[in-house]
Write a structure and sequence with these properties.
The protein is an alpha+beta fold. Helices cover 21% and strands 11% of the residues.
Amino acid sequence: MKRWFYSMLAATIACSSSEAASPVGASSGSGPSASAGSSGSVASGGASNSGGGGGTSSGTGGGSGQGGNPSSDAGNDGEATRACASFAATLCAKIATCTPFVLGVLYGDAPTCERRVILSCVPSFGAAGTSAVPAKTTSCEQSIAPLACPTFLAGDWGAACKTDPGAVALGGPCGDDAQCVTTFCARAPDAACGICQPVTKAGDPCVRNSCSAGTVCPAGQSTCIAPAPGRVGDACTAQEQCDLAHAVGCNTTSMRCLALTLASPQGSCGANSILPTSYAVCPAGGTCSAPLGGNCSAAAADGANCSTADTGTHCLSPARCVAGQCVVPDPATCR
């Protein structure tokens, strides 16, 4: 459930610019999975099955589907839609309260956040072998609602939000963690589908440029790390080693955490100088045209052309740039 949150943020920031002067190098985003929970730290960059890692999928076997627009029977189920809508409203309100910076970077505003979370949530119930059910989503929502911001941002959402094992065996095709007996669906950032793999721990190799809940695969790296809430001036090699929830990112040129700000739509973005002390990130999944003195452009619409290049047009979560097109993953199509 929550593991997608900050890997998507790290990916969005990473894609905003090139490595020369940006908070971090190239990466492509991962979409949320709102139907079942998993562990991760929101405050320190989170952990994800996509891990904010860049590049194309190098994995073999399983997961040959390309995803697509949500089309499973679950999409027509009133109970599923109601559960997802209520969950999205609670989650997005909590994000807006606890980390408005993240809300702005990922979605721009709360109504957009709600629509996009629902878009990810509903199709997950129709996936093969999934443990995800509307009642689980409702229980997770009820667990999130009363949380204080430090607890929410630390990823301590309670047992109701942890992913239950699914029925898809190791090596089988998947599009969501809740399908896998291992509770880890390894998906490359530019793929809608993946394969069920063993969970990872810090120090393990990334799997398809991804790591399981609790660890993350940083952009341009190949080893899973545990995220940490670094403060401005702290040493870092990846976004996930800085406190993204409180607008702190990693400048991988200086190897130090620096302050982040939220640019306005179509506004100026990038580093504030050649030796930056802050970096302006484009809102709502937008792209910065240059690492210094750039301008923001909007994210591509679902189904439109996109790019995983630093200054290319990106997709708005949960859509992923798959084969040059923004695709909203549907786990039911991963076979």
